[in-house]
Amino acid sequence: MKITGAIFDLDGTLLDSMFIWDNVGEQYLLSLGIRSKKNINEILKNMSLAQGAAYIQRAYGVEKTREEIMAGVNAIVEHFYTAEVQLKDGAAEFVRYLAENGVKMCIATATDEYLVEAALDRLGIRKYFSDIFTCNGVGHGKDEPHIYEAACRRLGTSKENTLVFEDAIYAIQTAKAAGFPVAGVCDAAEENQEKMQMICDFYITDFTRAREIVSKIRI
Description:
It is globular, with a radius of gyration of 17 Å. Helix 3 (49-60) packs across helix 4, helix 4 (66-84) runs parallel beside helix 6 and helix 9 (169-177) packs parallel to helix 10. It contains eleven helices and six strands. By secondary structure, the chain is of the alpha/beta class.
C-alpha cells in the first residue's frame, strides 16, 4: 500500500479532547433551564453539531434556530479549544514526519472550524494541513462518507492511497465502506476497541509508536 494522502479526524484522534463533549448537551440544556433525559449524552455522541442541534430542537422543543443552538454549544467548549486542549502524545512528531515525506494531509471533523483553527494554531501543527473540513460545512455527519470524499478530492489523491485516521468506530465503518484504508486510533471514549482492530487496516495505540505502522506502508 502506498500512502500519498491522509485525512485526520480531530477529537480523540489528534487531540485528547473527547471528554469535553461528554455532557455538553446536558450543560447546554441546563443553561436554558431544561433538565435533560438520562440518555442524551449517548444519543448525541455520534451526531454532528448540526444533527445534535436538530435533535435538541425536536426532542426538547427548544425554540431556537440550529445556528443559535450550535453557537451556544460552542460557547461552552470554546475556552478549552483556545487555551487548554493538548495533542495526544507523539501526534505532532507523527504529522511532521508524514509531511516531510510528502504525504498531503487535511482535517475532517465534527468540530466547528474556528475552534479547530484555534487549537491547531496554538499547538503548532496547523501548517501541516492544507484544509479543514467540518461536518457542518459539508452538510453531512460522519455516518455518511461525504466529508471523507470531499477531503480526498481536495487532496487530489486516490481513495486507495488516502489513509483515514479515526477513533470512533461508526466513522471508521463509514470510511471503510466508502473504500478508504483506515488507521484506528485508540481513545478511551470508544468502548469497542476489539471490533475496531478487526475492521481497521492499522491500529494505533500511541502516536509515539506510529512510525512502526508507517514502516509497513510506502510513502
